[in-house]
């Protein structure tokens, strides 16, 4: 591997939040940060699974005390995301890094009971946009141009499956699409979100007084996690890919996220970029580089969240 999180410096005194940190890539991302001395919060839909993950992490720490906590949030209930952000801010005054990691992939069509959005769009994109929005005050207070806070969105090369136009504002739930167009649009949203945040708060950002956040969108590669078992695709395909060694381990899948959220090798010039394994800068789709689409998506999302009194 050209990059390994063992090279991370001491993170003692730093605070991180990793969504979906109770399992898969998120678990290993949180574990590496905690093992380097950071205080880490793991977002989990299930408090029990979150607590189980913390206990497992502590058992793997080989007697070294680690500082890990569970933050309860359900991405299919946007109010719970707001509540989680509020809870976090009641406990912490700084946030050095946010990893928007939780996600689902290629699932059958379903809408959120509470919010009415298609599940992949809400889980992968909307919930993370909303969480980040409510933590922006803490992130900007923590970060400076010299020592920036960081926001990492876990995306996928599946963003190339987004529908024509990239973001279909006329059919935001992709009722006329399929499992992959819905997944692709949500993951394209993650990239556009990271780029908009960089435009607003990154190096040379439009908000000059708060240009203290670096961002990245990272593709972890094909990873053997629960994400694959939830996908609405034939099981034999996954078995075949596993047999041929296509899948990487969840630990390996965390490496690029760790590089972007805490690695000293991630530099000012990298902010707003798209990265693939391991810690390599890459070029996303044309839609992902479209500034007009980036701004339209931000405006649409802000309008929708305000209409629901979530911001």
The CATH architecture assignment turns out to be 3-Layer(aba) Sandwich
| Count of discrete domains | 1
Q: What's the tally of helices?
A: 10
- Note the overall shape: globular
- Rg calculated over all Cα atoms: 18 Å
Structural class by secondary-structure content: alpha/beta
CATH superfamily: NAD(P)-binding Rossmann-like Domain
Contiguous uncertain segments of 5+ residues: 236-246
Strand order of the largest sheet: 3-2-1-4-5-6-7-8
Strand content: 5-15%
Compute the number of strand runs: 8
The CATH topology turns out to be Rossmann fold
* Terminal-residue CA separation: 41 Å
Top CATH class: Alpha Beta
Average the pLDDT over all residues and give the rounded result. Answer: 92
- The succession of helices and strands, N to C, reads EHEHEHEHEHEHHHHEEH
